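Q: Got a minute? One more chain.
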Amino acid sequence: MQKITSNTLVMTIIAVAVGILVVFAIYSNKASVGQQTDSSSDYLIKQIKDLEDEADSLEKQIIATRSQIEELQTEQKNSQTIISKDEEKLSNLNLMAGFTDLNGPGIIITLDDNIEGAELAKKTNPSTYQPENFIVHDKDLLYIVKALSNISEAVAINDIRLVNNSHIRCVGTVIMVNSTRVAPPYEIKIIGNADELETALYECSRYKYLVQYDMPIKVEKPEDITIPAYSGAYSSKYLQLVPQDKNN
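A: Always. Here it is, folded:
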């Protein structure tokens, strides 16, 4: 009985010791877990703070980039405006220089040599027959064009565009327009107000002279006339560079 009691006491002591160790282990584990939890929380807070700082930095970069884009768009818009104005100026210059085809209303004057009159005069009055009196001369074309120039927007003779430096002249028995040979019938196309052009033509002394000598003349007033672009060269003998305005 005594032996049993001693064993029981020993077992009790061992159980108490084991219990104490288990309790100590449990508290130690809780403390360790608490420390790990605190450490994890600090790590997460640091990560969140870093992400917030990175987001703020990215937001600032986005704002700066957006501002740069707006500046570039403004510059591009200004450049496009300048280009558009330059293109408009160039278009007007090409128009004035005759480098573009033109369409519009106007009149077409067709002059031809008086072949029938020449043959009749040669037969009936051979002694007084002068062939030059029955053909169209360079001055006939020139005087008519000049008489209508103030109200003409574009002029062509046999589809050869006339511009500021154009010439109409006679080389022997051949009429040259812009150094190109032309032959009768001579078709003068003029774009402008058809009624005003027609009135000016009928008042032209050269036209009256040609009518008086029975030169074949036909006048038409089509709604749409096509005059081709000038295909010749411009002389650069008297050209000078215009100084650039520093304010522009």
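A: The chain has a mean pLDDT of 79.
Q: Perfect, thanks.
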